[in-house]
Amino acid sequence: MLRPARMLFAGAAIAIASLVAVVGGASAAPAAPTAFDPSSLAGVGDSSQVIVVTAKNSRTSYATVRAYERRADGTWRSVLGATPARIGYSGMVPASDRRQGTGKTPIGAFPIVTTFGRLANPGTEMPYVKFDRNDAWTYNPRSPSTYNLFQTANRSWRSFGSYVEWLWRYGSQYNYVAVMDYNLPKGEVRTGADGIRRAANPANTTKGGGIFLHVSNGKPTAGCIAIPQAQMAKVMRWLDPAKKPIVVVARP
User: What pTM, to 2 d.p., does this model score?
Assistant: First the structure.
């Protein structure tokens, strides 16, 4: 489904790069509409909050993040100017081609569905969970029903080996996290008597998961998008579920 949109994503990356000066001005004077129209990006649809991620090529782990909001009159304003970001250590790849363990950031449009963090809610209107030392994100291919899910069960998860993220161990990187709808399970997710969350319609166990927008530690990620904490906190406070926030990773 993403292949027909490649030209649109590529065009968006070129347009954004050529409008850095304009966007910078819009950031300084938010009352003026931006010359860039995020609604031209494939997958934006009726979203009124768009976070755009661009990179110079598909191999780099360095990227730039910008954010825009649609006004009632249909024009757009810049909310976050050009912000340095780190992405996957192997660069980026179309979401349809991504595989688990490749260290690539998926290209495409991904709604932000929920948020969580190590710190208290910074003021976001999105659903937010302050996680504790027991919480994890599981993506074990041998356990499809638990693949790509947030877990609160107090368990060792030893049988999952390396296919589990102990959220607390990521330190400040997970102070604030926005979950992108990349390969998430569809349909109902239930919590069993053992405390484990399981999906009735599991995610694709070959494509990886846990693709987030989160705080940067200055290093490449395993596929997430990471920005400085001050900017991440600003984004969190700005997010509004009623405006259908979405992250668009543009093809270089």
Answer: 0.87
